[in-house]
Structure formats: structure tokens, C-alpha cells
Amino acid sequence: MAEGFAKNGMEPIEFDDVRLALAGINLMLNNGFQESDMLFNKYRQYSPLMSAGASFVSTMHAVMTFEEEKISAAMQMLKSTENLCATDEGFLESIKSKLGSKPASKESAQLTVAERLERQIIIGDCQLYMAMLTFIKQELSAYVKGGWVLRKAWKIYNRAYREVTDLIAYCEWRTGQKVNGSQSSLDSLTDGESDSIPRQLPSKSQSSYEISREAAKSSVTTSASCENIPSKNQTWSGVSKSKSVAMAMATSTEDLPSADTLGRLLGAVSFGFGLFQLTISMIPPSLLKIVNMLGFRVERDIGLKCLKTASKSQDMKAPLATLSLLWYHLVATPFFALGSGGAEQGLCEAEKILRENEASYPTSALFLFFKGRLLRLRCQNEESLAVYNQALEACKDQREIQLLCVYEISWSQLLKLNFAEALSGFQRLKEESRWSQCYYAYLSAICYGAQGKIPEARDMFKQVPKFAQKKRNPLELYTVRKAQQFLKAGKKNQTREYVMLLALEVLYLWRALPTCDTDDLQKMLQECGKVTDQSLISMGFLIEGSIHSILGNRDEAMTCFEAALAKSSSPHQEQHVAPFACYELGVLYLEKAETHDQGKALLIKAKDGYKDYDFENRLRIRVHAVLRHMKDIPVEQPEPDEDKEVEDDD
């Protein structure tokens, strides 16, 4: 409850910001985007929670559009939210306070323990969102800068998690009552993961007091001995010297945070920590060493469990945790091949999530979008098209989500080799989207050429470089190079078969071939057999091998991948064919014990034996995902120094 909150001379008002924040998120998810914006912006200057909601909505728009203006606007709003939540918690501020040169502000002194923790978590969320927006640029400098911001978020989450669990333990001891859901929530983070749990997370068998002790011990900011765990009849001492518990100790039992508030805070910090882990796990493996040097490690499974805990809470971010889980299972995992054989398990989990939320979000465009993704990943393309069209109708007032639906509809038509229908969608995206227009121009050119309209395709390929941004990302570099390559081939070689192979190459690189039905895959095999251009031979074998692998023709697939590797050394072949063929062949060899070592060698060769090719980071993430699931192969991810403390930032 925001009671009498005032900032910068504004008149204080009273309202239930917890209820309003959750209502604002649910409005947005149920297609009330304008109403959600109005609600958050009305109260954002009066409540940190409402300001956080407004910042998230702005960040979501930026992530969906990739537009520089919206990214900058989201960054500014996040900084504004940080300022609104600022307390005298920083390193320099605490030193000045101890020296007596900077007394705590009146506003900070009046905060309750729950309000102070809530602000800490919101500031951590802001740092995380800023890092995500920074990573969008896909540049080395952006990764380094984003990594530093993530480090700050990590420290905030780590401290907030310790304090929340300390506070839960203390309140249970003080009142003698169990905080509803606290232990079960914490259990869900660790169920079945006892050997891989990061030190800041408790094991399933621990009590609330032991949870508090382990959280405090593991924190990089530990400032107290945690050896003596009191019984209910003892005086509380030695479990934690965290500020939250210290504040609670000076509070009457009636004024302690309620069980609902504590459960909500646990959900809030679990969301941030879980999304944090998934964000880091998406960066290229080559940068993981830098991540570890910054003081934290990647635990994707623990991140997923945290998000599941957050999704079951009453916090504003519970629906957002649900969407994050759907995004991971239906977008990230299929694209980066993170499942390593467990893809169907992820689809089942996503189906369960969608079913559980169907009553709450029956016509939500975002939930319909993910339902369409699920159907497409299960090769039910006709059904997915119908659901995508439902989502398109539901979000008619939201341009960004409309464009997402148009893209998926166009892509579904491309998978069915319906190039005329796909063309209309990609043309619309080229005209209306301000992100990666050269990519949509490239796809439009492919749709023209695959229909045999070579003059139109040639004209569109000429437009591709004109749409490229000054700072090109890997996608733009790829599409511009391929368009220029086609134009240099000469009119004699600019055939439908050439363009058709470019279309199949896109489907392969985007890992979309497994979602095609058998009839369409057979048609694609026939197209691969028509390749006559010698510069495309190795690519043709790579795609043909992938299709055979999907159809279950293992021997034929291996023969094609081996041919792709052999032909890739010939002049004028695509550089990315060899590492991708190594990866595909390595995965097939891993299926049998007698060729397991050979498969391991090929995966390592794919990861370390090639460089400076298209989508290098994308393939490295896929190889890394396979290596992570091979028990006999150590993952190149050094543990952070357990004895090293990370100092607070200014």
C-alpha cells in the first residue's frame, strides 16, 4: 500500500499500489495496452511499484521493436525508476553515513522493512532490463557494458534474496507462524538439483532457519557469523545482521510484514534472479569466462525454477514470469537447440502453462502468439496459422505485437512453400517495421525468386544493402552479403533454383526445418537435387543432410554431411557450411556408443576449429548446449572464487 508517498513536492495520495500494479500488467496481457499505459503513468511518480510497471511496459515495447528511439526511451524511464527507488544504500553513501558526514534522508528513515526490500528488488530489475536492452545491439562493446550492468544486478539480487529469506525465517520465529508458501517456493528452486545448486540457494532438506543461514553465508556481502540458529524459546542472535532483520527486531509483532507481503517479495526477487540467469545463458559461450570474472556463474536450470516460483506468486511480475517461461520453451530453446533431446519436454511444459492460464487470458494476443508457436513446433501448421490470425485480430491496436504476428504468419507460409502468401507479409514488415528492414527485403526477394519472378527478385536484392543500418548486426551482414553475392553471379546464374536454395538455407539456419511436415520436406529434398551452381554444392549437401536427419534417414544424413565437409574446402564455398556440418555430424555420432568419441571430437572442432563465419555465436551456443548435457565432457565454465568478496559499487 502506497500511503502518503510524495516525491519532489507532489501532494501525497493513498492507493493500493500492489493491486493496481498487478491489474496494470493483466490489462496489458489482455490486450488493454493503452489502458495499462494510462494506469501506470497516472501513478508512476507516486509509487516505486507503479513506476517499475511503467518501465517494464516501456522495456517490452523496446524489445519487441528493436527501435532505437524506444530503446532510448525505455532506458530513460528505467533510470527514472531507479531514482525514485533510491535510498541511502550505496557503498559511498553508507561510508558517509558511518562517518557522520551524510545522515540518512528523512524519506529513507521512514521506509518500512518491506518497502526498503521492494525498492532494492526494483533497482535490481532496472539494472537487468538495462543490460537486456544493451545486449540488443549485439556488439562486443555492448556485451562488455551489459555484463558490467548485469554484475550490479547480480549483487542487488544476491543481497535482496538473502535479506528476504532472513526476514522470512525471523518472522516465522518471532510469530511462531509459518509464512504461507515460503518453504514450498524455496523447495521448487532446488527439487532434484542438489548437486548443481549455486551457493546462494538452499537445499530441499533445509529448515527456514538453515535457509537463512546458508543465504547469509553465501552472500558476497556477508557481514555476520551465522553459526548459532536459535530455537523458538531462545533470543534471536547470530543468524543474520542484515538490515532487514535488524529493522524487524525493532518492530512490534503487529507491524512485521504479513505472510502475503513476504511471499510476494520472495516471488519478486525470484523473478529477477531467474530472468537474470536466462539472460546470461543466452550470451555467446566465448564471453562466459568474462561473466565468471565478473563474479557470477550461469545456472539456467535454477533460473527456470526461480521463474516457476515467481509465476506462482501474487507479485506484479508473476504473469511476466509466466511469459518468460513460455518464451524460453517456445522461442529460445528451439532456436538455440538448448533442449539437447528434451525438446518435447519443453513443449509439454509450455502446453501445461498455456492450459493453466487460458481462463485468465482467453483472448490475450501474447498468449495466443505462444499457442501458435507451440502448434507450429509440433508441425501443426494449419492450426498455428488459424491461432496466429486470432492473435492478429486481438492486437489490432498494438502495432508491435501485430508485426510479430504478421512475421509468424509469413514464416508459417514460407515453411509450407507458399511463397506468394509469405511475400505479402514480408513486404508489409519491410514497410512498417523500423527494425532490420534489409532482412525483410531479403526474404521478399527470396519469395519473388522462388516463384520464378527473377527480375522482381533482382530488383529487391538491390534494395537490401540500402536498408542496412550504419552499425550492422550479424543478421544484416549476412543478408547484405548474400544479396550482393546473388547480384554478382550474373543473369545466367540467377535462376529459380539458386533462389530456392537461399530460401532453404534461411529455413535451415533458423532451425525451422524440423517444423515442416513430411510432404514439404520431400519437396525440399527434390529442390536440393536441382542445384547445379558449383558455389552452392556444399550448402546443398548440408541442407539435404539436415532434411534426411529430420526424416529419420540417419545413414543418408551422415553421407550428406560428410559430403558437405568435403566440398566445403573447394573454392567459393560458404564459410559457415563446414562448422555447421561438423556440428550436425557430431550430434549424429553421439547417438551411438561406438562413435561417441568421434562425435565429441567433431563438436569440439565445430566450436574451436573455425572462426569469422556467419552466425558463429549462434552455432557456438548450440554446441555449448550439447556439451552441457554430456556428463563426461567438462563444461568450460570456471567456478568463481568462493573466498573472494566483491566490493559494493558506488
UniProtKB/TrEMBL annotation:
Keyword annotations from UniProtKB, A to Z: TPR repeat
Q: What is this protein called?
A: Tetratricopeptide repeat protein 39C-like
Q: Where is this region: Disordered?
A: 179-209
Name its species: Branchiostoma floridae (Florida lancelet)
Cross-referenced InterPro entries, in alphabetical order? IML2/TPR_39 (IPR019412), TPR-like_helical_dom_sf (IPR011990), TPR_rpt (IPR019734)
User: Which GO terms are recorded in the biological process aspect for this UniProt protein?
Assistant: cilium assembly
Q: Which gene encodes it?
A: LOC118404579
What the record says about family reads: Belongs to the TTC39 family.
Compositional bias of kind Polar residues: 179-188
Q: Does the keyword Transmembrane apply?
A: no
